[in-house]
Amino acid sequence: MITLALSKGRIFDDTLPLLRAAGIEVLDDPEKSRKLILDTNQPGVRVLIVRASDVPTYVENGGADLGITGKDTLIEHGGQGLYQPLDLQIAKCRISVAVRNDFDYERAVKQGSRLRVATKYVAIAREFFAAKGVHVDLIKLYGSMELAPLTGLADAIVDLVSTGNTLRANHLVEVERIMDISSRLVVNQAALKLKQAPIRAMIDAFAAAVAAQAKA
Ligand code: PRT
Ligand code: MG
């Protein structure tokens, strides 16, 4: 049995076409079913539905053989011990610094002010500002980062942006782009050795599907 860990929402939705190209149909819709283990049309393949931030943990500890997770989540988690064979080019976005429309970020940085930065991505933010030589107080949040500058909790946020609509709707502007993000296939190293043939076949099928999507 091969077990693939996915999160509900955009990663699941963007993974379905890749699975389909690999001949795998998921037999339940996680938005409708309460099942957390989903069967597929292949008796040897099942899908686990886990929290996005838990995907690396499941795969690292062998709760799943493979998983699909954002590069953001992978960097924050550390990704030690995970084999990362493929950038799937799905769930694309970027991770950026954003501030209130009326906050002079350039000036704050130039003056060497200590910035209060709210984020779920503490490791990425710490590394980015350290490389810039900007002193920051990091405030860890688990969601709705956009609220932090609006309420005076922070001067800036580090968050994922795709269309930018959420920032605009909350009177925030993107002032720096830290890195581009997409989702990665991650594999448990021990599983790769024990179930080499079926896992290699799945990696190859995903690689072919990604290449075909890139051409389309
Ligand atoms: O939601 P939950 O707390 O359960 O977990 P999660 O937020 O980690 O999971 P999920 O499913 O929301 O995101 C999973 C992965 O999708 C992330 O780790 C990213 O790699 C990727 N991804 C791609 C995104 C986005 N695009 C994205 N736009 N994740 C989140 N967003 C957020 C963004 O932060 C903003 O608040 O969506 C909002 C809308 O973005 P705009 O710019 O289009 O308005
Ligand atoms: Mg989310």
How would you characterize this protein structure?
This protein has 216 residues and is of the alpha/beta class. It has helices at 10-21, 55-60, 71-77, 105-110, 122-132, 147-151, 165-169, 189-194, 196-215; strands at 2-6, 37-39, 45-49, 66-70, 82-87, 93-100, 115-119, 136-140, 156-161, 172-181, 183-188. The protein folds into 2 domains: 2-91 and 182-215, D-Maltodextrin-Binding Protein, domain 2 (3-Layer(aba) Sandwich), CATH 3.40.190.10; 93-181, D-Maltodextrin-Binding Protein, domain 2, CATH 3.40.190. 36% of the residues lie in helices and 30% in strands. The strands form 2 sheets. It has a 6-stranded mixed β-sheet. Helix 5 (122-132) links the parallel strand 7 and strand 8. The longest helix has 20 residues, at 196-215. The mean pLDDT is 97. The chain binds phosphoribosyl ATP (PRT) and magnesium ion.
Query: On the 0-100 scale, what is the average pLDDT?
Result: 97
Characterize the main sheet. 6 strands, mixed
- The count of helical stretches stands at 9
CATH topology of the largest domain: D-Maltodextrin-Binding Protein, domain 2
List the domain count as a whole number: 2
Spell the H/E element sequence.
Answer: EHEEHEHEEHEHEHEHEEHH
Looking across the biggest beta sheet, what order are the strands in? Answer: 2-3-1-4-11-5
- The CATH superfamily name of the largest domain is Periplasmic binding protein-like II
Give the cofactors and ligands: phosphoribosyl ATP, magnesium ion
CATH class category of the largest domain: Alpha Beta
User: How much helix is in the residues?
Assistant: 25-40%
